[in-house]
Give the backbone structure.
Amino acid sequence: MATYRWSDAELAELVEPTLGIITGLPELLARLEALRRIDLGATPPA
Amino acid sequence: MTPAASTCFQPATVLARSLRERAFTAVDLVDMFLARIEDHNARTKSYIEVTGDLARRAAAACDRRIAEGGDLPPLLGVPYGVKDLIDIEGIATTGGSAAFRDNIAAKSAVVIERLDRAGAVSLGKTNLHEFAYGTTGENQTYGTAVNAYDHSRLACGSSSGSASAVAHGLAAFALGTDTGGSTRVPAVMNGLVGLKPSYGRLPTEGVLPFCWSLDHVGLITRTVMDAAAVFLHCTERSDPESLNAVGAGSGEARSLRGLRVGIPEVYYFDHADPEIIVAAQDAMRHLECAGATLSKVVLPDVRNARTVSLTIQMPEALAFHGPHLESRGALYSPDFRAGLAVGQYILADHYVRARRFLSRYRAEMREVFEAVDVILTPATPIPAPKLGTVSVAVGGVEEPVGNALTRYTSFFNMTGHPALTLPTAMHSLGLPIGIQLVGRHEEELLILKVAAVLEEASGGVPPPRST
């Protein structure tokens, strides 16, 4: 359910970043999964 | 160096005094800077748009005010640069992007209005990483601003042009923004002071957002006293007592006795260039000599901080830029489009969880600041990278250059604490390196005072070779 259209090159950059600015999506999703397992108790969002 | 060139490397507060003493007129001063910009900007890529006519008109108004005498604001007639994310009425705010070339501001940003009232004179809009997205400052539309100490290296970003302008003597000070380190990193990499005040301290109205939750307006100056003077003006608190509290006096007045400085036990001194660690240790010794007490502190676990920051940044950036992608997406740079794509694939659950981490980080930092008054860290783990660098390896660990550059700075965007970077030494590569000071919310004057002591004790860094 993509809201915006991305080129193949952009999706390729997501998967295997070459531009050095940020982490690639697969690694980011893995890290988000690790964050999901950290117990935050009842801490509300800031 | 010619006398005019030498003048353009004077601190803003010195220029302001010289203007009041009529060493030269405000129009003369603006002309000196405009001449330097004309000579050097094609190489330094510091400015996107130079507003020479407007600057001369504003300077002429300053000269009339000086001639009238009376109480004059401390920055009257001082020329400065404005990161091209910040609106100036009637001038395009391009965001460093071809997509926003025709985005003419209807009204000046609040911080610009405050500097207008203070009599400072804008010289134009400085270059940046497109829409403040990255910390390399690379810009495919307007060129990449270069480091003043080595033109084969990055000025760093995203406030690359602002730092490059001040460091090359093309502005007396400059405004930047800071979402993960974008004022602090380019400042220290170019031998300058970078101040990110507390979140919300300087209004962001009239500033193109990158990430509303983490954006700060920041200041890039030649000296700590300049940072204090500009900060006070931007908060409309230009009382002499506040300024004197930062840097006046000697001896006991400069003592830091009673100050408790926290040194993080882990993370901030790992995988960093050894010369940067030595510079930080020297800074610690200077603080101890000035009477401060140093102790180890345990900061919140920051191993996940970069992930938390990105998880907040990219959806918010997409929320602002999404509507523009429809009509002008092809004009955005590839790296920013890739980042926006990341934003789309971050779920609401991820985003909300990241904001819960913000709450936790802020609560944990409140506890840390019960035991200490100021925290000292290195400013960056590496000196300024070469143009075109994609990844760096420090201590055997490879990471994207953007992650490395913001490793020590981005956490304090999430907690909203005021933070300042200060160059304190030269790396053997001939590049400035330095430290970061972090204070409690709204205690900018304290970190400025500590920075002033360190600036004097360390002797600062030499200016770049003549441009």
Summary: The mean pLDDT of chain A is 81. Chain A touches chain B at residues 2-4, 6, 9-11, 13-14, 17-23, 25, 28-29, 31-32, 34-36, 38, 40, 43-46 (CB under 8 Å). Residues 5 and 11 of chain A are 10 Å apart (CA to CA). The helical segments of chain A are 8-15, 25-36.
